[in-house]
Amino acid sequence: MNRDLREFRRLERLCLEQAALSTMDLARTGLLKVADDCRAAAEAIEARSPPRGAFAGAVQALKRAPLAWRVGARS
Questions:
Q1: What percentage of the chain has pLDDT greater than the value 70?
Q2: From what superkingdom does this record's organism come (predicted)?
Q3: Which tens digits make up the pLDDT trace of 40-70?
C-alpha cells in the first residue's frame, strides 16, 4: 500500500510538472485532470491506512476536513 501511495504521489508531481511546461491547452487540461485523479487515489489510500497514534489520527482528520468542504463546493 505504501508503494502505491508513493507511486500515485510521484505521478501527480510528474503530471503537474508536465502541465506547467505544456503549451497546448488540451494537453494541460488533461494532465491536470490526471494529476487530480492521482491525488484523489493517494488520499484514498491514506484514508484506508490505520493511524499510527492519537496525534496521527488527529492529523488525518484535519486533512480530510478541507477535502469534504471542497467537494461540497464543486456540486
A1: 73
A2: Bacteria
A3: 999 999 888 766 666 776 776 777 766 554 5
Q: How far is CA 65 from the centre of its chain?
A: 14
What is the phi/psi pair of residue 6, to 5°? -60, -40
Q: Determine the Cα–Cα distance for residues 46 and 59; give it in Å rounded to an integer.
A: 11
Cell of 69: 468542504
Could you give the C-alpha distances from 64 to 9, 10, 37, 40, in angstroms and in order? 17, 21, 16, 11
The identity of residue 63, as a single letter, is K
HEC string of 8-23?
Answer: HHHHHHHHHHHHHHCC
